[in-house]
Write a structure and sequence with these properties.
about 100 residues; mainly beta; 6-stranded mixed β-sheet; two-stranded antiparallel sheet; DUF1540 domain-containing protein
């Protein structure tokens, strides 16, 4: 499992730069750069306090469809540390996996 840092402040699953779900899915099957990836689990937060009742998950499972990434092993991210970015995203496509490394 990877240690995940999430800077997507507008996601309901984000609390204090951690994700509050058990696993995420990074999509971008044909990606050759991080900008072509995104976090499929992004959900726009409608209430700034929504995620305060959730528990941050420091280490979580990351399913990854970015088969061109060096960290991808059988659709599982093997990176020790993963950065998901998209500070004020309003949809999944405005997020990205900054840890993507093209083969």
């Amino acid at each position: 499992m990877a240690k995940l840092n999430c800077s997507v402040k507008n996601c309901t699953n984000n609390y204090d730069s951690y994700c509050c779900i058990n696993e995420i899915k990074v999509v971008g099957a044909q990606a050759s750069a991080s900008e072509a990836t995104c976090c499929e689990n992004f959900q726009e937060s409608e209430d700034a306090f929504t995620n305060n009742i959730q528990t941050p998950n420091i280490n979580l499972s990351i399913n990854c469809e970015a088969t061109n990434c060096n960290h991808n092993s059988n659709c599982t991210c093997e990176a020790d540390y993963v950065d998901i970015n998209g500070a004020w995203a309003y949809e999944c496509g405005e997020t990205k996996c900054s840890s993507f490394s093209c083969k």
